[in-house]
Amino acid sequence: MTIKEANLTLNVKDMDQSISFYTSIGLTVKSRWGNYYAQLVAPGILIGLHPASETNLAGNSGNASIGFTTDNFEEAKALLQSLSIETSDRNEAGGQFIHFNDPDGTALYFIKPKW
């Protein structure tokens, strides 16, 4: 068996709002099946969005964090500010981070690594 592709699927409350959010920060829509499922891509990651419901959230922890590596930290920060997205910064041994959330509260971050 060969795994040909993998993705992370997030359960979202509003497909249109979530797609708009993720495309505004630089991801692109790979495919969309109405309001049932959409795939967005960024270099090295495929993110699936799925409508949230009590059934498909049963037993899930709801914990996810998605990081995006950037070569221009200030540009990433300016983009989030221009979109009125609340952020918090962190600087540590591994690099600089800008933490923010998507419309459903999923933790996201941009990192400019020091490695």
TrEMBL record:
Recorded superkingdom: Bacteria
InterPro entries to which the protein is assigned, alphabetical: Glyas_Bleomycin-R_OHBP_Dase (IPR029068), Glyas_Fos-R_dOase_dom (IPR004360), VOC_core (IPR037523)
PROSITE patterns (alphabetical): VOC
Residue ranges constituting the VOC domain according to the UniProt record: 4-113
SUPFAM superfamilies: Glyoxalase/Bleomycin resistance protein/Dihydroxybiphenyl dioxygenase
Family annotation (Gene3D superfamilies): 2,3-Dihydroxybiphenyl 1,2-Dioxygenase, domain 1 (3.10.180.10)
Protein name, entry field: Glyoxalase-like domain-containing protein
